[in-house]
Amino acid sequence: MGADAQSAGPAAGALDPFAFARPQQAASILADFILTFFHGVLDLGDDPDSYGLRHKILTVLQLAAVGGSRCAGDAIQAIDSPGGDNEEQLEIILEFATTNPLFALAVGAHPRTRRLSESFALIEGGDYAIPSPPPSLLPDQYEDLHWFGIAIAQLIAELVKAALMSPTPTREWSPR
Questions:
Q1: How far apart, in whole angstroms, are the C-alpha atoms of residue 81 and residue 91?
Q2: I need a labelling partner for 79 at 20 to 30 A (CA). Which of 5, 31, 47, 91 fits?
Q3: Helices 144-165 & 23-37, crossing angle to 10 degrees?
Q4: Closest C-alpha among 89, 120, 160 to residue 11
Q5: What is the pLDDT of residues 11-55, one digit of tens each?
Q6: Model pTM?
Q7: Which runs of E-coded beta strand occur in the chain?
């Protein structure tokens, strides 16, 4: 992931779950983020066939965390499995990790710990408008951009929760 992740923006990795939570918890947070972010893009509706992809993403990220991944970029690379049933969807995830600034917020290229206040400052310093759906829309009417915003909001909530539960002082949430 290295330098490519930086092409997605200066705040790439600012919300990397591995910077705030224990590895297996971070993998679970990252899997939820990916599945929400790509809700419409990967066509992960209620089709029973999509459960295989959902399970694969969570399982591979958990195995990557147990195997030593300490940043989302490393864990996402573990998803890549050429020739599998979900190759096209997995390629989309890998591509977004390096090209989409909103998705890249959750994808760090290097292991690190940071305070949430530092991450929020990185995001505020950039031009990141977090989209949200109008209240008048029902979820089945959301566009991809709405799901992107929902995924970012859920990610922030999970990271705050993880940081508050963590005994490590460098992972504490602190208001400005």
A1: 9
A2: 47
A3: 160
A4: 120
A5: 788 889 998 888 889 999 999 999 888 876 766 555 555 567 778
A6: 0.76
A7: none
> Among residues 99, 149, 172, 125, which one has the least CA distance to residue 14?
125
Contact 98, 8 (CB under 8 A): yes
Check: CB of residue 40 under 8 Å from CB of residue 147. Answer: yes
- Asked if 86 contacts 46 with a C-beta cutoff of 8 angstroms, the reply is no
d(CA 5, CA 52): 27
pLDDT digits (tens, 9 = 90+) for 140-176: 898 888 888 889 888 888 888 887 776 554 444 444 3
Please return the burial class of 27, using the count of CB atoms within 10 Å of its CB with bins 0-12, 13-18 and 19+: buried
Q: Using a CB cutoff of 8 Å and minimum separation of 24, what contacts does 133-142 make? A: 142/39, 142/40
- In this structure, are residues 131 and 148 in contact, taking their beta carbons and an 8 Å threshold? yes
